[in-house]
Amino acid sequence: MASNEAKEVVFSAEEVQRHVSPGDCWIIVRGKVYDISTFMDDHPGGDDVLLQAAGRDATEEFDNVGHSKAAIAQMETFHVGECPEVLKKNLATEEGVESETRKSTYKIGIWSKIFEFMVPALLLGVAFALRNFGKNSDFVQNDACMLKQE
Ligand code: HEM
């Protein structure tokens, strides 16, 4: 059965790590491998940042710059394959961060529920105590008056 779908070339992270020189520079962004060797001199952000990110996953640095849509489209020119290994690692970390966030949101939710109940209960308790304390001191005063009269 003939298929028109182009098979994606898969690289290991170890293979990508071998391309770290100005004349042979690869990076990984969102699990895709880019051979940017011919782009080093033309990169508006300079070649030094690219060299620093060479041979590894540069997704975070790439996103932090806030590259334009034109820059993202331009990346396709340098796309040479995939590195699913790195993508999987990234997704696992993202999932971990998400579940931690979910856990802490759940904890905050519980505490706010507890406070919602505790604050009115505490206020009621204080009001009740003040009322009783007031009554008791009336008794003391009345008792003292009665003793004086006797
Ligand atoms: C194939 C990959 C890349 C392409 C095609 C690309 C393209 C571009 C383009 C067109 C700009 C001009 C501003 C814009 O239009 O957004 C730019 C700026 C820049 N890029 Fe890249 N870039 C790539 C990878 C990277 C990576 C991996 C890093 C960091 C490690 C990086 C860091 C920067 C910086 C620092 C600037 C300058 C931003 C500024 O002056 O405001 N770029 N890039």
Classify the helix fraction into a percent range.
55-70%
| CATH architecture title of the largest domain | Roll
Number of structurally distinct domains: 2
Strand arrangement within the widest β-sheet reads 1-2-3-4
**Assembly state (oligomeric):** single chain
Kindly name the structural category: alpha+beta
> What's the alpha carbon Rg, rounded to whole Å?
34 Å
Q: Do you know the CATH topology of the largest domain?
A: Flavocytochrome B2, Chain A, domain 1
What is the succession of H and E elements?
Answer: HEEEHHHEH
* Full CATH superfamily name of the largest domain: Cytochrome b5-like heme/steroid binding domain
Short note summarizing the structure:
The protein is α+β, with helices and mostly antiparallel strands and 150 residues long.
How would you sum up this structure, described in words?
Its main location: membrane. The protein is of the alpha+beta class and 150 residues long. The protein has helices at residues 13-16, 47-52, 59-65, 69-75, 84-149, and strands at residues 20-21, 24-29, 32-35, 79-82. Strands 1-2-3-4 form a 4-stranded antiparallel β-sheet. The longest helix is centred in the last third of the chain and has 66 residues, at 84-149. The chain is rod-shaped. The termini are far apart. The model has no long low-confidence stretch (mean pLDDT 84). Protoporphyrin IX containing FE is lined by residues 27, 34, 36, 43-45, 49-50, 53, 58, 61-62, 65, 67-68, 70-71, 74-75, 78.
